[in-house]
Design goal:
Elements lengths: L1 H6 L13 H4 L4 E2 L5 E2 L28 E6 L9 H16 L2 H7 E5 L5 E5 L5 H5 L4 E6 L13 E4 L2 E2 L8 H7 L1 E3 L2 E3 L5 H6 L1
Antiparallel strand pairs: 1-2, 3-5, 3-6, 4-5, 4-7, 7-8, 9-10
C-alpha cells in the first residue's frame, strides 16, 4: 500500500505527509496531522481526524480492518532482519496485550526497503497503536494492485515470516527502475546498500 500511496496520493483519504509532497500535489488541503482532503472547491477542512472518511469503493481491500503501520527507522545502524521483526511484534503487543496476539494479527512485514508491517485489528485500536513509541503512521491498508487481492510485503503466516525473496518487493523494485534514452534500466541495489556506499 505504501507504494500505492506514493504513486497515486489522491486515491486514499489517509496520505503520507512526505517532504516536497505539496510541490507535486498543491490541491491537497491539510486538516490534521495525518490526514488530507482533496476537494479544491471546499473551504479549509475542519473535520477531526478521529474518524476516517470511507472510500471502500475506490480502493480495493480497504476495509478499515487491515492496517499499514509505518515505523520510524531504528536509531542505530541497520539491524538484522530478526531484530526488525521482533520490534514489530513487540510494538503491536503493547496495544494487543501479548506477543502471541500480535503474531496472529500481523500478516505482512517489510524488512528491507522501508520499516512497516501490516496487521488486522479493529479500527478503535488504531489510535492506541499510533501513540506507541516508534510508530510514524497508521494507515488503512489496501491491495497492492487493483487487479490483485494481495496486500504486498513479506508474508507473515501463523506467527512466522517466510524466507526473504525479492519478489515480495517487486513493485518497490519496479519503482527503482528508470528509463533513459530508449532503454529501461533497473537497479537491484537496496537503499540500504546505496547509503553504505
Amino acid at each position: 500500500m505504501l507504494r500505492t500511496i506514493l504513486r497515486t496520493p489522491l486515491n486514499l483519504t489517509a496520505t503520507l505527509n512526505l517532504p516536497n509532497f505539496h510541490r507535486h500535489s498543491p490541491s491537497l488541503c491539510h486538516y490534521s496531522r495525518r490526514f488530507f482532503c482533496a476537494d479544491r472547491d471546499s473551504p479549509p477542512c475542519t473535520q477531526a481526524s478521529s474518524e476516517l472518511p470511507r472510500v471502500d469503493s475506490l480502493v480495493g481491500g480497504c476495509d478499515y480492518q487491515h492496517w499499514l503501520i509505518v515505523m520510524h527507522p531504528p536509531s542505530h545502524n541497520y539491524p538484522q532482519r530478526e531484530q526488525i521483526i521482533h520490534r514489530y511484534i513487540t510494538t503491536l503487543s503493547m496495544a494487543l496485550g501479548s506477543e502471541e496476539a500480535a503474531k496472529k494479527s500481523i500478516y505482512s512485514i517489510s524488512t528491507k526497503y522501508y520499516y512497516a508491517f501490516s496487521c488486522e485489528v479493529p479500527e478503535n485500536l488504531t489510535h492506541k497503536i499510533k501513540s506507541l513509541p516508534g510508530v510514524k503512521w497508521v494507515l488503512p491498508d489496501s491491495y497492492l494492485c487493483p487487479d490483485e487481492n494481495g496486500y504486498g510485503g513479506e508474508p507473515f503466516v501463523d506467527g512466522e515470516v517466510v524466507s526473504y525473496d525479492e519478489k515480495y518487493h517487486s513493485h518497490w523494485l519496479h519503482k527503482e527502475c528508470y528509463t533513459g534514452s530508449n532503454e529501461r534500466t533497473c537497479s537491484s541495489k537496496s537503499r540500504r546498500k546505496r547509503k553504505k556506499a
